[in-house]
UniProtKB/TrEMBL annotation:
It is a multi-pass membrane protein. It comes from the Eukaryota. Residues 1-20 form the signal peptide. This is AB hydrolase-1 domain-containing protein. The keyword Membrane applies. InterPro entries: AB_hydrolase_1, AB_hydrolase_fold, AB_hydrolase_sf, Epox_hydrolase-like. The gene is MEST. GO terms for cellular component: endoplasmic reticulum membrane. One of its GO terms (molecular function) is monoacylglycerol lipase activity. Keywords: Endoplasmic reticulum, Hydrolase, Membrane, Signal, Transmembrane, Transmembrane helix. SUPFAM superfamilies: alpha/beta-Hydrolases. Pfam families: Abhydrolase_1. The lineage of its organism: Eukaryota, Metazoa, Chordata, Craniata, Vertebrata.
Amino acid sequence: GNGGFFWACCAFLSWQSTYTSPPPQLSPALLSWHSGGASFTFRGNSIFYRESYGAVGSSDVVILLHGFPTSSYDWNKIWEPLNQRFNRVIALDFLGFGFSDKPRPHRYSIFEQASVVEALVSHLGLSEQRVNLLSHDYGDTVALELLYRTDHNRTGHLNINSLCLSNGGIFPETHHPRILQKLLKDSSFLSPVLTRLINFMLFSKGLGDVFGPYTQPTDAEFLDMWTGVRFNDGNLVMDSILHYLNQRLEHRDRWVGALTSTVIPVHMIYGPLDPVNPHPQFILHYQRLVKRSTVSVLDEHISHYPQLEDPTGFLNAYFSFINAF
């Protein structure tokens, strides 16, 4: 499909000196997101997180796990409404994403990201507290590893009260990564060149493809996402992070097994226009395998980023799940 366009961009970019282009400045919106957060140290790396105290009289905690290649800022449109329902709302930028450190070379893995989440929960003094996980895309896979550890009573595990997934490629068999992801993840000789060449134009085209036609981000929103990637030279670690696509295949039985065997309440919020997890194959497969889970399919024009494309529909679906038990 988009292969020709991709190579045309590469040709165009190769004479453009993107090697030296400075990372974009933080917009006022990102600056305020950043200044409203804090960080803690995990194995020598700084991890950015945000937490706010919301609903009084509730002890409920929700932890938000973002997707690839973006950051905790993906939750900004639903942050306030979540604060009206939960006592504590917590989001982090995974290692290699957003405002967190992006070490290189580094072997990025889903297992390590799950340990980052456990370390944050412990740092915040919530190890004994029941937590609700709300995840998206890459975060879905991290959530499944956390679920596995909880259900197998692993040291340091979370006390998971509920899990809500959204638009994650949790089944390698129904998952269609974008061409750029395929090229990067196999770390061919090309990928160091490609990672340096992905500039804003190519990034917005690639990301725009996974938003619905009526719910495209504004230029300012695309720029905020790109700024999050470029912060701490994150564009240079994308290929290492993308090994998670191979990990998902390799550990499919562990992660899908955790999902199909758990007795913890599980929900899936799904934007059906998602080219990464196509409708109806993905959701039919999900319902066939994950019999205990409930499902919310959003409007037909909502795609891969439902919490940004339809924050109201997303919240309604999430609250009706959370309030049902």
